[in-house]
Amino acid sequence: MSSQLLNDLILFTIDRSGDEGDHYDLNTDIEKHIGITGDDAAEYILAFSKRYNVDISEFDFDQHFDPEGAGWLFPESINHHKIPVTIGMLLQVIERKKW
Question: What is the CATH number assigned to the segment(s) 3-96?
Answer without folding.
Answer: 1.10.1200
